[in-house]
Amino acid sequence: MSVGILLQLAQSLLAILLAPLLMGWVNQCHAWLQGRSAPPITQPYRTLKKLFHKDAVIAHHASPLFRFAPYMIFACMALAAGIVPTIANDLPFSPAADVIALVGIFALARVFLALAAMDIGTAFGSLGARREMLVSFLAEPALLMVFFTASLISQSTELPIIVQTMAHSKFAIYPSLAFAAVAFWMISVAENARIPVDNPSTHLELTMIHEAMILEYSARHLALIEWAVALKLFTYSALGIALFVPWGIAAQGDVAAIPLALLAMVAKLLIGGAVLAFLETISAKVRLFRAPEFLGTAFLLAVLGMLIHFLLEV
Amino acid sequence: MATLSLLSPDPVQWAWGIVLFWLSLGFASLLLQGSQRLLTGLVFPLGALGALAIAGVGIAGLTGPATSIVLPIGLPDLPFHLRLDALSAFFMVLLGGAAFGITVYASGYFKSMAAGPLALLALWYHLFLGGMVTVLLADDAYAFMVAWEVMALSSYFLVTTDHKVPEIRRAGFLYLLIAHVGAVSLLLTFGVLQGGHGDYTFDTMRLAQTPPFWASVAYLLALFGFGAKAGLVPLHVWLPEAHPAAPSPVSALMSGVMLKTAIYGLLRVTFDLLNIQIGWWGTLALALGLITALYGVIFAAVQSDMKRLLAWSSIENIGVIIAAFGLTLIFHTDGKGALAALTLTAMLYHALNHAFFKGLLFVGTGSVLHATGVRHMGHLGGLMRFMPWTAWLTLIGALAIAGLPPLNGFVSEWLLLQAFLLTPGLSQPYLNMVIPVAAAIVALAAALAAYVMVKFFGVVFLGQPRDTALQDAHEAGWPERLGMLWLAAGCVLLGLFPAQVIGWLSPVVRLLTEQTMVNDGNWLMLAPVSSERASYMPLIFFAVVIGVLGLTYLWVRRVYHGRVRRSDPWDCGYPEQDARMQDSAEGFGQPIRQIFEVFMKVERETPDPFSRTPRYHGASLDKLWFILYEPIARVTGWLSEQAGRLQHGRIQWYLIYSFATLIFLLVFTTR
Description:
The complex is a heterodimer of chains A (314) and B (671).
Chain A: H1 2-33, H2 43-53, E1 56-59, H3 64-83, H4 99-119, H5 123-154, H6 159-168, H7 175-191, H8 210-213, H9 219-244, H10 258-282, H11 291-313
Helix pairs in contact in A: 1-3, 1-9, 1-10, 2-9, 3-4, 3-9, 4-5, 5-6, 5-7, 5-11, 7-9, 7-11
Chain B: H1 11-31, H2 36-63, E1 67-75, E2 78-84, H3 86-109, H4 115-137, H5 141-159, H6 166-193, H7 202-207, H8 212-230, H9 239-245, H10 248-273, H11 279-301, H12 306-333, H13 337-372, H14 383-386, H15 388-401, H16 408-421, H17 431-461, H18 478-496, H19 498-513, H20 538-559, E3 564-567, H21 585-595, E4 600-605, E5 617-622, H22 623-644, H23 651-670
Antiparallel strand pairs in B: 1-2, 4-5
């Protein structure tokens, strides 16, 4: 148990500390693919440091909710990162929340972000909040369907048990998971405000979703939100790995496998980040009202995956 | 006949005593017409104490055996039978818990009302409370229908408190009409259930061996009758009209508690009075519930009147509850007792949650209405600065209804989704494949509920005031705050201690499904079926979020600094912004309107480009009203017109009618 708690703490801290690195890696890949000279992989840390040092500028009529929200969002994302098995499968904390509760945590953070965006009362803020909620209400059922498929296979909604089933029991091919994986990729792209649903590096009013919500934030509040965004990307990546390519994650009580698990995780994240950057480079952002079609496709794929599970795998 | 023993009364006697206390309180308030202070300072607080006592009686009744009394009132040879079992007791806890907060709130809210109308309102209010409790206690069809009518009529008079406004009179009429169509259906249900014995006590009905066909007829009639009260699509049209019309505490009671009496009735008839249950009943209820949930939440998203928005959201929640009811029936008839118990637990839990968060939200809008006099969200905004208590407490309700952890809405939603995940175990082919997919509708409704709540809270409380008059908005008084605090505390505690709540629910679940929900966890952990399968620990969850939040805060302050500079909003450097540039309620709902336009009849009035006084108007109306209700209204109107031709106002004609009838009857009987 005490090993478990240590592992849990180490894993959560690692996730929080290293999440910006993944962001840096994706940005670096982006720059290479676009033929620019890349910023160093540690660039996100420098940005965070700079932001933490600055004085916060807040609108005169901002309510306490506006200042409270960044901490809340960061706490939610840190909790989410602690639940998903990344290197070890032995997490004493994971019974606190299963995959459905994980969806709930993401929703909680999102609602606080949307409310904070509406707090200042600017045109952009409420526009961003509205669009974010639009994307999320379409993505959330699809995400749940993906999780349902995985949990129907493993008879559990607990992430460690799902990973246990997928990675450590008898090898089996699940066609349903292929559909679910594609759906999950599409949902992650939308939820993490990436191309083609949103563009993290734009400040054009017609296209902004996530950026429009955080326009009024500065300094430490902005730093916390940016950090939370990096954590979210990391958590979604770890989730995708745990559900679809879990091989390498150390089984319960298998401390010796942890160094290897760490290596496997880093390799998977490097590949995943590069693929994300590549797919973003070759695609264009879609119009906002095409986003429902994009997410509708994701939803249908997830449902198809579930039906295929019933038809072929039961 | 049991007498009221004063020394050691049974729970049922206590409950009836409290009903009598409320009735006397109501009639006493008529004598206090002159003193506004006594009405708000004494009558309503006493009424609230009665509600608390009812909750206490309910808790006692949950664990104890069923108790009953026969009251020598009513018609000769037709006494009132009252009985309190675990099912009634649970709904009494729900009623008492929510009504206590709402009535405490009401004691402050009605301070601005003149004494005369207030005395009348106090009468109807307490009659309404008493009627609802009697519905829960009734053990024969006669007492049930009398109580049901008392509830319907007193709430009608409460809805039409502002009867001078034509729209409110219209809303009241619509409510009364649908309530009575439903009541007729209930009367027929009991007619079928008594099975020709002529004995209308529930005890006889329990023993009656209703053949499957007639059982199905009774079930469908009950679904219709109780559905009309609960707001099941397509019988929901009265809700968005009646809830905004009523004073806010009354809306809170109607939405939070009265709708649940219909759920109670449905459970009572289906699981208790009918001796058989049939599988397709559940499929029907599940389908209707899911349609209702989706329909309700879509329309909630496009409303611009804050109380109407909440009324539509009530329709959504009723849909979720009915869907859970249907799933319970499906599991129950399939012989999956443990799963039926799990689903029923989710359903009861959601009903309890809805009483608290919807009550809280409705009284929150009451405070806004009091402070500003505006119900249209397009004229509100920025109220968090002027009314922080109301805003933060309403935020708890909004987060809870959006199904966010660790509040109570999430627990029932989580349990329900777990139940859906277990449906592949069903033995019917196809059903076991389709139902898990149907869970997506529950998830979609929950995600849309979050959209609705961001809209509701964001537009009303956040941003800049859309009207200069809002600067004078004042915070609610102490009784109001206390009432809201109670309801908000309910939302938090029901969310943090689900294992305890499920323990309390188990007698009810055992009564109806003969099994209880298995909780494999401990007092901290909720784990239906087994902890290997799924678990959720809200308290740990909450502690970690708070812990990380606190640590982050301290760390940021310690390592860096807490300096803040205030300035104008940036808004991408655009200097000319004003409050009118924020999203209006219509603007925030626009994506939903665009995506789900098929369900709506959208009215748009766009200004002419050369107009000097440009005016934009948009409304999303309920299509069902036009394709279902208006034709029925037209046919009814036509039929009454035809019947009206018989009436000429001349006495000769009426004499001829009587004569003809007499001849006809003579021929008929002597044949």
